[in-house]
Each structure stands twice: as structure tokens, then as C-alpha cells.
Amino acid sequence: MKTISNQPTSKAAFARETPGRKRRQSFIERTLASFGRRMERSFYAEELAKRDGLLQRLDPRVKVIGLLLLLIDAALARNLFAIGCIFGIGITLALLSHVPIRTLATRAWLGALLFTGVIALPSIFITPGRVVYHLPLLSWPVTAQGLQSALYLITRVETAVTLSLLLVLCTLWTHVLKALSVLGVPVVFIVILGMTYRYIFLMLQTARDMFESRQSRMIGVMDGPERRRLAAASVGVLLTKSFHLSSEVYLAMQSRGFRGVVDTLDDFKMQRVDWLALIVFVLLAILMFWLGRQSFAGPFTVL
Amino acid sequence: MHIPDGYLSPATCAALYAAAAPFWYVALRRVKRLLHTRLVPQLSVFAAFSFVIMMFNLPLPGGTTGHAVGVGIATIVLGLWGSMLAISVALLIQAILFGDGGVTAFGANAFNMAIVGSLVAYAVYRVVAGRAAVTAPRRVFAAALAGYAAINAAALCAAIEFGIQPMFFHDENGAPLYAPYPLHIAVPAMMIGHLTFAGLAELIVTGGVVAYLQRTDVSLLKLTAPASVRDAVRVGADTVQSGWRATRPLWMGLALLMVLTPLGLLAAGTAWGEWGAEDFADPAAREQIAAASHNQAPPAQPPAGLSRLANLWTAPIPDYAPPFLKSAAFGYIMSAMVGTGIIILVFFLIGWLTRVGHGSERESEGSV
């Protein structure tokens, strides 16, 4: 399931188009670029998942359970120290798994910091609490509680994106979906998730072809209503194609003897190292849970 | 709209997983019953379709672009239950593999967009489109409205989830542990963006696709238009006015009343007999009671029975103005809209349950 027919396997083939162009991209170009980014991401993840690192060697089920436990610990933590420790565990795992810190920084940290930073910024001023500083000129009050809550939000979000990115960067995506069975996701959903993942790329390819063929036939600039009609028609065409595709897939499945009973080949086997890793993850999770319940003086409580 | 990890407390996430679970269970059973062996391929392909739709850049008036969730069009084409499942699967893949929306917040995202979104889109589309023909322009309007209402309902749910965080979850110094903004900030902040840009993107894609399908492939619209399909079969037969059509004058009247709601703000004085126990102690309220009762002074103490019964129930929206809305006039109008909406929804659900109970109804069944 790594490639589908006609699908270029090089990530360069999906590189963002028309680099360095000054004029504003049309909505077609932007849509094409977002399709390209999605495909490129999955190819890069596949490359990393094949490297020889700590997380790559583990059973996907152990990774799902272990990283999810740490993620829940990060969500439950009631002090910044515990969140910082879990973040540290994430970075250590990344280093041991040969995941470049730069990848984490560009793919997760920077985006999360900008997005959550913008959201958290006003809370510094409007959260009621002990005033520790007044902004010069505007004289807006900065409260200790506001600073603390902004830090909670940002560190928690950064830790969560690091842990979830580690899972998908160090595991083949089909294995991630299959490993969800340990969380009690029914087999029928596992099969649906796996097939959805496969058809997402086919649909992205189809949508990309549609937009490209339209763009290659276009001269001049479309006006607003025409652009909207084109977007709606593209969705409509994709929908009709989906119906045809699902009928074809169903016929193909029937021809191979599918009678509605779903079964997956369970090729995951727990080795000794997997059990060991699972125990370490569980112990770490218990330790972090305990740490998260402790009361530490926050950096702003002593100001 | 996709809530990331870290914004909601684990307790909220768990509650929303629990709230979504029965819907997933019912949806899976219903869709399975209709599709049998087709379930796996159809649901997979439509979940992939929903995923791709969320990535479309839609051109909006004013030259900007926006993303739609696609819940409106998914509900109209796949039916209520099919849409819930397809959008949920798409959201799960987005959360796990692409980092759009948190893993712990998946239950919340699925509840807001896939479940509440589909329910609102379905109710609005069915009520507004009524028995109009599949190719009627009214269906385009109904679809656009359904998409717009669905995305705003989902955003309102997300805003309430954000807004309750600082009420319940803070550390020992009072610093909020999760999303830091209370309801009176979170609700307007979320809704302004969704009532304008995001709502517009959903409106355009839902209305536009239905208009396109009306021209090219009407069969895809038939699932959520069973009445008009039956009407088309009965051409020439004596048709008795029934169903939504017969109630159309009532709907018009209701719409007129809702438009006239602001008149209530102009009314002076107090509604006679609608006094609360606390009004007897308030000098201004006492004057109003006296003025409305031919200058008969009210008793000094509230009647004992009134005081006792007044404590039985506290309204969620006291005096028609939710506490998080600063403007009483706006709150009054909002209360009218929300109240009417809830009543319509309750009757819609009762009607739907009765039809399902009689076992003769297939029209409300969702499918992919």
C-alpha cells in the first residue's frame, strides 16, 4: 500500500508549485499546494519510519499505548514541571529514533507555538489575578495567573504535538491504524480506516488532476462567482466519482469472495524488547502522573 | 474548528467521547442494516471524500479563501447516519495521521462536527426543503442554510466546551489549566469567525454542490428528499394536503413572530402576574406591580407558596438573557431564537420517533 498506480513516489513531484512568484496564488493553486503538502508529508513519514531507531523497532501497539499514556499524563498534569518532563521524554525518544529535531521544530513546534501563542496572548492581560507588571504606554495589567495559564496552554500543546508526531513519524501509517485495535476500536472500523487512508490518496490525486487540467485550459482571471461555481462543481464531480469508485471497489471485493465478514492479518508479534518497552512506558506514565499531581511553585507565583 | 490537544481537560474529553459513543453505535447499526456487505467500501470511499473536501480552498466573496468541513453536503447526500460515520472517520485520520485536531480531543471534534453538525444540517435541510421537488431552487436554499447552521452549531458547541474550562479547571493559584477564556469571551470570539467566513464557506459549498447535482446527477439527492420522490411517483393522483405542506401557513406565522420578536423590547411595564418572589422586595418592581394592578399596592412579603415553589427550578437562561451576553436586547432576541429552535427540534424528534416506531418509515434512515 505504499504507492498506488500512477502515483509519483518522489516527494519532489509534489513540491509546492511556482516558488518565488510574487502575485497572489489563485484558489486553484492554493488547493493544489495543500494537496501537495499532504502527500509530501506522508512520503516523508514513510522514509523516517524505515530508519533504524528505538521507536521504529517497537511493536506499533506498544507505541500507541505508550505515547497515548504520556499524552494523557500531559493533559492531566497540574504543574509545568511535569509537562516539561514529558516534553523532555518526547525529545529523548525523538533523538533515540533518529527523528531530526529540525523536523519536529518545523512541523510541530513552530506552527503550534504561533497558533496557540496568538490564542494565549490576550489571556495574559484578561485573566483575573495578582498583577505583576503593567505594559508601558498602554498600562495593561499582566497577571501572574494569566502568564501561568498561557504557559500551561502552550507547553501542553507543544508536548501533545511532539508525542503524536513521533508516533506517525516512526510507524508506517497503515500500522498506526491497525494498532488502534488495542484501544478497542472494532475490526470493521480498522478495515474502514485502512481503506479510507488508501482512498484519500487516490482522491487527492483525482482532485489534483481535475484542478490541474482546468488550470491548463485557463487564460485570464475568473471572477468571484465563477470561481465559486468551479469549486462547487469540482466537489460535485468528486462526489459522483466517489460513488462510482465505491461501486467498483465493492464489485472487486465481491469478485475476490468478500461476503461481509472482515478479518485482518495480525502480523504484529510482541518480542521481548516490546514487553520491556511497554513496562518502561507504563512505569514512566505512572511516575509522570504522580509528578503531575504534585504541587510546585510556578515561575510566576514567586514574582 | 479542529480542537487540538491541550485545550480541553481530560474530563471534558471523556464526557464528549461518552456523548458521541451512542450516536456512533446507532449510526453503525443503521448503516450496516442498509448496506450489508457494501458497508466497508462505501464508508471508506466517502470518508476519504469527506477528508479531501476539508482540504479544498473555497473562494469567498472579497477575494479570500476558506475551508469547509463538508458536513452539510455529506448529510444531504449520505443521510444523517452515514454522514456521522464518514465525517468521524475522516476526523480520526486527520487527528492521528495529519495532526489536525487532537487525539484526546477527537471525541469532542467528532461530537461537534460529525454528530451535532450532521443533526443540525439534517433537521434544517428537511424542514426548510419540505416537499419541494428534488430540482427545486428551494432545495439549494435549504442546503446552503443547512450547511451554515450546521457549522455554526458545531462552533457554538466548541465555544461552550472552551468556555467551561476556566470555570472548572484551574490550579491552586487560580490560573486556568486549559483554554483560559470564560464563556462570555469564548462564545463571541468563536462565533464571529464562524458566522462570517467559515459559515460562508460551508454555505457556498453546500448550496453550490446541491445546485450542481440538480443539473448533473439528481439521484444523489434522493436519499434526503423521500417525500418529493414519492410525490413524483404519485403524479396525477388526488393528493390530500398533508405533512409539511399543510403546515406551511403555520411555519410562515412562526417566522413572522420570530421577526417581530424585538417588539417585546419596546413593551413598557411588567407582565401582569409574571412576578418572581424577589420582585416583592424590590421597590422598583413593587411600583411596576402596583401600576399594572390599578394602583393596588402588593403585599409586603411574597406569598409563602410562591417563595417555596420559586426555589424548585432555576432557568438556564434567566430573564431571557444568558449571563455571558452583555447586551440584554441581543440576549432577548437570541433567547427567542434558541427557544423556538429547541421547541421545533423537540417536536421534530418526537415526530421522527413516532414514525420510526410505526415501522413504516424508511425516509429518515441514513445511508451511504
Descriptive terms for the model:
heterodimer, A: 303 residues, two-stranded antiparallel sheet, 10 helices, disordered N terminus, B: 368 residues, mainly alpha, Arp2/3 complex 21 kDa subunit ARPC3, 14 helices, 2 strands, 64% helix, globular
Structure description:
The complex is a heterodimer of chains A (303) and B (368). Chain A is mostly helical and 303 residues long. Chain A has a domain at 53-171 and 272-295. Chain A contains 10 helices and 2 strands; from the N terminus they run αααααββααααα. In chain A, a hairpin with a 6-residue loop joins strand 1 and strand 2. In chain A, helix 3 packs parallel to helix 10. Chain A starts with 26 loop residues before the first helix and ends in a 10-residue tail after the last helix. Mean pLDDT of chain A is 82; it is low at 1-22. Chain B is an all-alpha fold. Chain B has a domain at 10-246: Arp2/3 complex 21 kDa subunit ARPC3 (Orthogonal Bundle), CATH 1.10.1760.20. In chain B, strands 1-2 form a two-stranded antiparallel sheet. The two termini of chain B are 25 Å apart. Mean pLDDT of chain B is 78; it is low at 236-244 and 359-368. Classes of the chains: A mainly alpha (303), B mainly alpha (368). Chains A and B meet through helix 1, helix 3, helix 5, helix 6 and helix 7 of A and helix 1, helix 2, strand 1, helix 4 and helix 7 of B.
What does the secondary structure layout of this molecule look like, with pairings?
The complex is a heterodimer of chains A (303) and B (368).
Chain A: H1 27-49, H2 54-57, H3 60-76, H4 80-96, H5 101-126, E1 131-134, E2 141-143, H6 144-169, H7 173-179, H8 187-216, H9 224-255, H10 272-293
Antiparallel strand pairs in A: 1-2
Helix pairs in contact in A: 1-8, 3-4, 3-6, 3-10, 4-6, 4-10, 5-6
Chain B: H1 10-35, H2 39-53, E1 58-59, E2 65-66, H3 71-78, H4 80-98, H5 106-129, H6 137-168, H7 183-216, H8 226-233, H9 243-246, H10 248-259, H11 263-266, H12 283-292, H13 304-310, H14 328-358
Antiparallel strand pairs in B: 1-2
